[in-house]
Amino acid sequence: xxxxxxxxxxxxxxxxxxxxxxxxxxxxxxxxxxxxxxxxxxxxxxxxxxxxxxxxxxxxxxxxxxxxxxxxxxxxxxxxxxxxxxxxxxxxxxxxxxxxxxxxxxxxxxxxxxxxxxxxxxxxxxxxxxxxxxxxxxxxxxxxxxxxxxxxxxxxxxxxxxxxxxxxxxxxxxxxxxxxxxxxxxxxxxxxxxxxxxxxxxxxxxxxxxxxxxxxxxxxxxxxxxxxxxxxxxxxxxxxxxxxxxxxxxxxxxxxxxxxxxxxxxxxxxxxxxxxxxxxxxxxxxxxxxxxxxxxxxxxxxxxxxxxxxxxxxxxxxxxxxxxxxxxxxxxxxxxxxxxxxxx
Length: 344
Prior knowledge:
Uridine Diphospho-n-acetylenolpyruvylglucosamine Reductase, domain 3, 13 helices, 6-stranded mixed sheet, 2 domains, disordered C terminus
């Protein structure tokens, strides 16, 4: 007999993700010990040796709950037992409230990804390791709903990509019920993070309160439909982003926006969808954290070129400021400005 259907589905998804890599590449699975990442880790340990890919694991201890260090040590032990090496535990300090993040979830996410970047870059692999994440179709559906509620635009509704930079997400078409079934079939005991059920967190409320109501009203195919929506919008957003990048290059590139500035009239003449993306790309190049740069911030930039009535600047996340001077937009770090006023 073959493996349990859920085990087979997850192994197939991981195999497809690894097919784009080269023998000798290093992949670290980010594992919290929850069912999603645990099932992913087991599949990676099974599939990677067949392809000549080196597979390890990293777990991040956010230090937000009692016993978090012991939980991280247990994850390392489990990862080692299933054959992943190296198996690393990294402790991070999550920024406190009021430090510029949208909430505790965003602060923890920022700290986690920073730790994963460090872990990836400190491996022996040239260029660092790939990071494999256990986001499922259910996570994707929640992400789309959160983006819709925030009015964040097509890029946010496009959800998470199967591959983004060094990050791989093989399970975006796998259900959370399948990862739980796979763990049970393999005899792996998963950890339930109490924060995943804490109504203080927005995603937990979407998961436990919103999604069941919508599924009951609209049908059990809701998660799959939201996943398809994300796939379609991602293709559109990728095409528009490519056009925006080419447009920014014609303006002199994002480097020009940081040095000599861009002509505001030239930006104002662009179609809305391209103009907003060009401004966002410049803000990101100036150092704005991607997860904190919202549509509201982009709108404040847009007003400097399309509805200018003497306002001098817009302050952005990450200490970045965009100023309009002599008909040009210039992005700088806010700390460099000698004028302390004018915060919008």
